[in-house]
Amino acid sequence: DSGVTQTPKHLITATGQRVTLRCSPRSGDLSVYWYQQSLDQGLQFLIQYYNGEERAKGNILERFSAQQFPDLHSELNLSSLELGDSALYFCASSEGEGAGEQFFGPGTRLTVL
Amino acid sequence: AQKVTQAQTEISVVEKEDVTLDCVYETRDTTYYLFWYKQPPSGELVFLIRRNSFDEQNEISGRYSWNFQKSTSSFNFTITASQVVDSAVYFCALSEATTDSWGKFQFGAGTQVVVTP
Q1: B104 pLDDT band (50/70/90 cuts)?
Q2: In chain A, which residue's Cα lies nearest the Cα of B99?
Q3: Please, are residues A41 and B2 in contact by the beta-carbon 8 Å criterion?
């Protein structure tokens, strides 16, 4: 158990809908990262927050947004969902701003029908 | 362009055999970090090892060992005396200074390891 929690574990929704994925980092970790894992794209970095501020962005779609709250938990919002958004979404956390190992949560499996 | 290449898609071994996973990376930075992660069938990504670019000393940790060679941009990982529980997908990842954050890991495609009894 990495200490990173993610909810929900599974999510099934329809195209055009909006969903919110939630992540709680390990105690003491200030950085939260979001990754998408799909069969065709592999593991892709989406976005990083450090102590409430956006720190880095990857190839995150404009339909996707995230935020980190004062208690350091984070939410990833996915809107206008398309079939191709079906994937495993991971949250990870680390103590500092980067370079250190990231500890991953169990992931949220999103299925868009 | 792919920064981390794991050319082996799948490796199948019989229990107790050694398994070596190849990872070749590409960077122009002099300071960078390399990682290995394991993703068992349960799906969670598990951190295994981290090396920085200034430390080419190869180490052994239990049944795991790694061979870091800057001259060939390789960071290979070996499981000695494999066990069925080692069956998983193994990912190599790179963290560079030239990206806007050290935390922006770039993962390889992964190598599926299948260990049969």
Answers
A1: confident
A2: A56
A3: no
